[in-house]
Amino acid sequence: MVPVVKISNLDKYFGRLHVLKDLSLEVMPREVVCLIGRSGSGKSTLLRCINFLEEPSHGCIEVDGIKVAGGEKGKKHRQLVHEVRLKTGMVFQEFNLFPHMSVLENVIEGPVIVKGMDRQKAVDLAEQNLDNVGLLFKKDEYPNRLSGGQKQRVAIARALTMDPKVMLFDEPTSALDPELIGEVLNVIKKLANAGMTMIVVTHEMGFAREMADRMLVMADGELIEDSKPADLFSSPKDARTKALIERYRSGEL
């Protein structure tokens, strides 16, 4: 089986700060990978490098057969980056909805503008995805009339309407009130059960334990563990992972 995402020897520098250090990783079709670690460990930067919101300093990113070397420039590089972005859906901590557009307009913007999709086809697809996240009845509302959980579910529908090969979630519940977290996690669980390939950066350890096929732990820009959830929670190999697990069990996470 061919990986949907393959990362080889990835480095990322911000000036002299070495944020990602020689990372290599494969994600297989239909796999759910949860990425955990302390704040500042490089988790969000890794996701942003996968779809080139951050340009890798060195190494190679491959998404659904499109291979892009980091640190290069030129027309060919820009075209390859564009192709990778078409294959990756990204959901951020903040919702990044256009406030002057209705829910439906937010969701069809990408397919119509970026992909050149026929508007009616985009509307049909958007309505299907809004229905999947339980928000079709809100399609004519504007973002300021939605709860945080509803905004994040619209953001998920927007990403899905681009028909990505992999979904990247960057702490999708961190900006939500506690009572709204469950509705977003339930949508992500539904996607996982439907076979969507996903990489999820999260502090929701219970969710990760339940839904992940694999859990990755990052510390100081490195991947320090890669194992099944049951193994990670029962016998973490690294002391830093053990500390994370203990904080979770004590209710600190």
What does this structure look like?
This protein is α/β, with parallel strands linked by helices and 253 residues long. The chain has nine helices and ten strands. It has helices spanning 43-50, 75-86, 103-113, 119-132, 148-160, 178-193, 205-211, 229-234, 239-249; strands at 5-14, 17-27, 32-36, 58-63, 66-69, 88-91, 166-170, 198-201, 214-219, 222-227. The strands form two sheets. Strands 6-7-8-3-9-10 form a six-stranded mixed beta sheet, with helices on both faces. It has a four-stranded antiparallel beta sheet with strand order 2-1-4-5, covered by helices on one side. The two termini are 35 Å apart. The mean pLDDT is 93.
Biggest beta-sheet profile = 6 strands, mixed
Class by alpha and beta content:
alpha/beta
Major sheet: arrangement of strands:
6-7-8-3-9-10
> Total number of helical segments?
9
| Poorly predicted regions | none
Global shape: globular
Strand content: 15-25%
Task: Give the beta-strand count.
Answer: 10
What is the rounded distance between the termini? 35 Å
What is the average of the pLDDT values? Answer: 93
Instruction: Output the radius of gyration.
Output: 18 Å
Helix and strand pattern: EEEHEEHEHHHEHEHEEHH
Helical percentage = 25-40%
Task: For this entry, give a set of tags.
single chain; four-stranded antiparallel β-sheet; 10 strands; 253 residues; six-stranded mixed β-sheet; 9 helices; alpha/beta; globular
